[in-house]
Amino acid sequence: MPKILLVDDDLELCELLRDYLLGEGFEVEMVHDGSHVLDQVSKTTFDVIVLDVMIPGLNGFEVLRKLRDNYKTPVLMLTAKGDTVDRIVGLELGADDYLAKPCNPRELVARLRAILRRISSRENAPRNDDTITVDELKIHLGSRTVYYHGEPVTLTGAEFAVLEWLMRSPGQVISKDILTEEALGRKLTPYDRSIDVHISNIRKKLAAKNASKDLIINIRGAGYMLTTSEND
């Protein structure tokens, strides 16, 4: 049974979401103050954390920043409806996905299951397909680790999934629709910049290891492509 940590100070909403998630086969624990999240995570292993941006103690961004220092647990951020800035900031800090409040419980369940499917598919990847290498870039599917020129690159689960799909088709353009469906497990919606932000994060982390800024390029109107030495 997947275990979810629900972090929100709206007690009524928490109760509603908890009851719905329980009915959908999830195990749920709740925290209503950001300053208590790390203590809870240190004591219990959660499959996904649902984290509201506006919470007392430490806000959601502060909590996410501290979580990413020590934990790879997938995080789904709850943001104010229409607040694009909060969504982008959350993704840049390492959130795997976001959902606007007030959220539809069915949509929350769909997003959670998409994250869990992504995790499960990577954990159950065939051992003979454990490593993908493109020039100096290498990923290990089993351990979900990334290396560039032998140096480790730390990615979130969503970033890893996006990079994996790009590396499975090097030198080919992959549309944002396909990346959203295959890597994030959901349909691309209008004004959804999740893939763009995840790609930006991957580029920054690879650039910190001296990778070229053109390692992943944007083909306007078509999608993204992982370049190879053959493209030079």
Would you mind describing this structure in some detail?
This protein is of the alpha/beta class and 232 residues long. It has 8 helices and 11 strands. It has helices at 11-23, 37-43, 60-70, 84-92, 105-123, 157-168, 176-183, 194-207, and strands at 3-7, 27-31, 48-52, 75-80, 97-101, 131-134, 137-140, 145-148, 151-153, 216-219, 223-226. The strands form 3 sheets. The chain has a 5-stranded parallel β-sheet with strand order 2-1-3-4-5, sandwiched between helices. The model has no long low-confidence stretch (mean pLDDT 91).
Layout of secondary structure:
Layout: E1 3-7, H1 11-23, E2 27-31, H2 37-43, E3 48-52, H3 60-70, E4 75-80, H4 84-92, E5 97-101, H5 105-123, E6 131-134, E7 137-140, E8 145-148, E9 151-153, H6 157-168, H7 176-183, H8 194-207, E10 216-219, E11 223-226
Parallel strand pairs: 1-2, 1-3, 3-4, 4-5
Antiparallel strand pairs: 6-7, 7-8, 8-9, 10-11
Helix pairs in contact: 4-8, 6-7, 6-8
